[in-house]
Amino acid sequence: MSHEKTLAFQKDVKMYRVKTFISGLSKSQTLGILLQRTCASVQTISDRTQTTNSFLNGSSSVYTESMYEAWLQDPSSVHKSWDAYFRHGEFASPSQLAPHAQSSTSVDTYKQSQEYYHVQSLIRSYQERGHKIAHLDPLGINSADLDSESPKSLMLSSHNFGEKDLDRKFYLPDDSVTYIGGEEKTLTLREIIRRLENIYCKHIGIEYTHINNEEQTRWIREKFETPRIREFSREEKHVTLARLVRSQRFEEFLSTKWTSEKRFGLEGCEALIPGMKTVIDRSTEFGVESFIIGMPHRGRLNVLANVCRKPLENIFCQFDSKLNEEDEGSGDVKYHLGMSHHRLNRVTNKEIKVAVVANPSHLEAVGPVAQGKTRHEQECVGDHEGKRVMSILLHGDAAFSGQGVVYETLHLSDLPAFTTHGTIHIVVNNQVGFTTDPRFSRSSPYPTDVGRVINAPIFHVNADYPEEVVYVCKVAAEWRATFGKDVVVDLVCYRRNGHNENDNPYVTQPIMYKAIEKQQPVMEKYADELVNSGVVTKEDYKVCTWGSD
Known about the structure:
This protein has 549 residues and is an alpha/beta fold. It has helices at 3-23, 27-47, 61-73, 80-88, 104-129, 189-200, 214-225, 234-257, 272-285, 300-306, 312-316, 366-380, 397-402, 404-410, 466-483, 510-518, 522-532, 538-543; strands at residues 169-171, 186-188, 204-207, 290-294, 339-345, 350-356, 389-396, 423-429, 458-462, 487-492. The chain folds into three domains: 3-88, no CATH class; 104-225, Helix Hairpins; 234-543, Thiamin diphosphate (ThDP)-binding fold, Pyr/PP domains (Rossmann fold, 3-Layer(aba) Sandwich), CATH 3.40.50.970. Helix content is 43%, strand content 10%. 40% of the residues are buried. Mean pLDDT is 84; it is low at 16-30, 38-59 and 91-102.
């Protein structure tokens, strides 16, 4: 299809949206009429270029719409061919113009128009359902949405394509539909599918088509579909690895020094730390000065040490009564305690405050408390748009889907008297609730489906791929800064130990923990990847010589 014919088709699509609304036709009826009319219209324009009637020069949608508005006011004010077009749903020839017989060009245009629509339908299917076949489980034994079947809408045959079409080139829709082409206007079907699978079906699963705001859905498409937008610089890779090293080494030290102590470690989701720090880095660039964190017990000590930078000696003294207590005690266990700390963010060189809310009853009870604290602080500093103070809530997968306080808190997010102008929710999804398999603990496909009720985008990510985790967290921070609305990040991971370090998980989850026993830690996997690609050397990795805020 020539570029001019493609433009004519796209403009007729826009015109028929208006007419479909008026006539009440179904989508399928409209498509059939549209394809036939487009062919006739394109051929008519092609055959009649020798005429001098001014209405035939109105190829732009702006001109067509102006004619339509004039016709609505007074049908006699426009040329009678426009009157016939708008009155009968087609561009009818006036009696003084001789009709032309349909040529083979018209048939070809009809076929090309159908293919254009099918390409658009294929792209839309990946945008809507690509997350269902994404490789999200680091262990490779579960489907994150509890459904092992692939959607039929992702099959070529569902869009009237076959193997023979894979190396044919097709025109791409404009950026109101997709950004996968970049500067390219045509791609082979094989390349279209390859790009869509890399975006939607690899280690990130994106749920956003439920959002009923075109500006927001287009923004998300641009952030993930633009070619090469997710490439990391050498420095970014260094920082990500250094933060992973700090996260894992902290847990290793505690498990070696105090082997029998409960600490609810982060092993299996070490990528949470570089992800959270990315949220803080990016948000600080947008002007946020204070971060209020609400979280359960799992990973709390690691967050206190590596995100808040609570002095390590203050953490270690809580493990050993012989050590001097450096901070005031509350009588509660160490993985329930909070803190507030002012520190320098070395990425932006700005002074920030990071506070973790104490959570004695753990799990989701802390959510509304953290939100109330955030709202109060915003009002105290006159931050009426949430540009200076923000909240980050961490959740467990079973608690996020199972506790009613989550739903209640989410529904406060857009109320004028309660909103905090966007919260970043991070779910540590270790695919087991205490000892319960998720297939027996929830009815929804994902633990994060509750986020759909407030039109929050949901980013699922395989936590064994730290660059993907960091990128998703970066986009989450940008979303919050741009739209002032909630966003959910689902870190699909695993729990290397039992519910606590003294439990034996093989009793209730033998298959999962046989797979976990063989699983290489994410720090080692990522380090091997960077060493093999020449980004770092083995010597640098061993001593971890890069700075990490």
